[in-house]
Amino acid sequence: xxxxxxxxxxxxxxxxxxxxxxxxxxxxxxxxxxxxxxxxxxxxxxxxxxxxxxxxxxxxxxxxxxxxxxxxxxxxxxxxxxxxxxxxxxxxxxxxxxxxxxxxxxxxxxxxxxxxxxxxxxxxxxxxxxxxxxxxxxxxxxxxxxxxxxxxxxxxxxxxxxxxxxxxxxxxxxxxxxxxxxxxxxxxxxxxxxxxxxxxxxxxxxxxxxxxxxxxxxxxxxxxxxxxxxxxxxxxxxxxxxxxxxxxxxxxxxxxxxxxxxxxxxxxxxxxxxxxxxxxxxxxxxxxxxxxxxxxxxxxxxxxxxxxxxxxxxxxxxxxxxxxxxxxxxxxxxxxxxxxxxxxxxxxxxxxxxxxxxxxxxxxxxxxxxxxxxxxxxxxxxxxxxxxxxxxxxxxxxxxxxxxxxxxxxxxxxxxxxxxxxxxxxxxxxxxxxxxxxxxxxxxxxxxxxxxxxxxxxxxxxxxxxxxxxxxxxxxxxxxxxxxxxxxxxxxxxxxxxxxxxxxxxxxxxxxxxxxxxxxxxxxxxxxxxxxxxxxxxxxxxxxxxxxxxxxxxxxxxxxxxxxxxxxxxxxxxxxxxxxxxxxxxxxxxxxxxxxxxxxxxxxxxxxxxxxxxxxxxxxxxxxxxxxxxxxxxxxxxxxxxxxxxxxxxxxxxxxxxxxxxxxxxxxxxxxxxxxxxxxxxxxxxxxxxxxxxxxxxxxxxxxxxxxxxxxxxxxxxxxxxxxxxxxxxxxxxxxxxxxxxx
Length: 743
Hints:
Blueprint lengths: L2 H13 L9 E4 L3 E3 L10 E3 L19 E4 L18 E2 L4 E5 L2 E4 L1 H5 L10 H6 L18 E7 L2 E5 L6 E3 L1 E4 L5 E5 L3 E5 L2 E8 L5 E8 L2 E9 L10 E8 L2 E16 L4 E11 L4 E2 L5 E2 L2 E6 L4 E4 L5 E2 L5 E5 L2 E5 L6 E9 L3 E6 L3 E3 L10 E4 L8 E2 L4 E2 L2 E4 L18 E2 L4 E5 L2 E4 L1 H5 L10 H6 L18 E7 L2 E5 L6 E3 L1 E4 L5 E5 L3 E5 L2 E8 L5 E8 L2 E9 L8 E8 L2 E16 L4 E11 L4 E2 L5 E2 L2 E6 L4 E4 L5 E2 L5 E5 L2 E5 L6 E11 L34 E3 L5 E3 L11 H11 L7
Antiparallel strand pairs: 1-27, 2-27, 3-4, 4-6, 5-24, 6-23, 7-8, 8-9, 9-10, 10-20, 11-19, 12-19, 13-14, 14-15, 15-16, 17-18, 18-19, 21-22, 22-23, 25-26, 26-27, 28-56, 29-56, 30-33, 31-32, 33-35, 34-53, 35-52, 36-37, 37-38, 38-39, 39-49, 40-48, 41-48, 42-43, 43-44, 44-45, 46-47, 47-48, 50-51, ...
């Protein structure tokens, strides 16, 4: 075996033990597009909280700090990007990320006045107009009435002591009505290793003795009094520490609301609990994060540029910026189309927001219909590759009587009936099969080819349309991607599998391939001549179709299509694939398929008068679906979340000085596959290169390698039959030229 083949097999073996993410969530910014008509940026392209949902934003206090900018020209005055000249490169110093700290008042100070003080602190004068309230202890005279927040790579941080370059995580922050009751002796896990313990309450029930711990080691302890005649400020317990080279930073604080000493139990109730981590991220000049270098790191701001790195926005690429932030570029030679995005993999529920709408004393009513679509609401479905979109959400400026839908000046926060409208429709998408495989045996275009792709001829999938289908129809529905069967907006199903142009799957005869959703494909047999394969398609273990596909004769004959009558429509292509190659050997027979496509056969039929959340279907036709809040009003009360439909909501700021809100969708991702340790264990009894923790066979002979299941295989034995045959040689050869992937 030559060195290249050995290295190929070794690489496959190593890659097979690497962890794989179970799910990822992409949150995009608005799309930038340059083409023949508009080849260059006419101005600097800036994304902020309102155009990039991946950036941190606090709706309640309208706080934001981050911006990402592509300069229109480079350091020499030439256009940064130029479609006409094929310049897709962001040269050095043309990409700039900026963030700053912003003030946030403590919930304690905002909600608890200080009756024992008449003079404002310097911080109260500087940030909140001299309003007096309870403060937390710090090295500032009179203590702190607030702290500083900062977005950093899309995440929320605390900028300690108003330093943009010294960040830490906010661990706990109680809202104004949150309370926690603790019994004496109880240890409250605050997260991050921190814990609060109520040691004792005095006999009079007026004092409580706290201990604050981290990793079970006491950091601080203090007695807090709430007795008669005690100043209100004395009810506040603050732990300060020297962190990030800053002195007396408030790390933990709480307010003792009540004490109770009983015959059987003693309890304390605390409010306004606040905790930051004492582990500080110090951002320094010349530090690098991904492609970005810190150019400015001061108390006032942090600025990063791609100082020594170019970023190529090549077609069909995802380019790392920094952290979990990327540029994603369309696979389209006719445009430079891209957007910034952040990618999440941690399990949890995420909020993907649209742009913010605000009405206040200066602008009390909407002056035009407010419309959210794919460009300003990242929660809506969007297909970057082909620039496809279908959804929009509208709030009308006026209700049916001609009065403003919302009016801040009169306190009208209600969206009356029929003032919220959601629309969607189908859009055409060409099959990967048709796009990449021409039909040499045909010179006349089908009606569908003429109608949608300018008469370009290619291989089609079987359907009840004359000549078959060259494409299908996609539709966004409540932010999710669906297939609109036979171009019917009101008949939707899920797209289960869609291979890209270079995806391949190799099946041995008798092997059953799980396609998901209960579907499976089996290559039953290959004929003696090795030019035909007999497929069976099953769902939930029951055969729903079988067909013999030939690789000889017309190219179209290589396409296997299963059609079914679903959703009241006839002969809908549910499954299709293209037979790329067949191999018949002495020990094994295999078939390689491409352009695999599968939709679910369970159809969502949308009917007029159906209701989804607060919305009712007013129009359900082939061409489009329209919903309105026909029988419901939506109240945008302060500090609330109002359900629209599905996982779509309006979120409203807890602010009496404005009607400020945005639409959002909730997306939940699960856990990850088990990951190996960060450092590879040294133990490897059989010296096969696979640590014992991953090795299912610790007696692997020296001429064996180890597969993804930790099982030893003879070098060159690719199918695991313990023999070296022509089938193994074929698989290695196909892997070398990219025809198959070895598993």
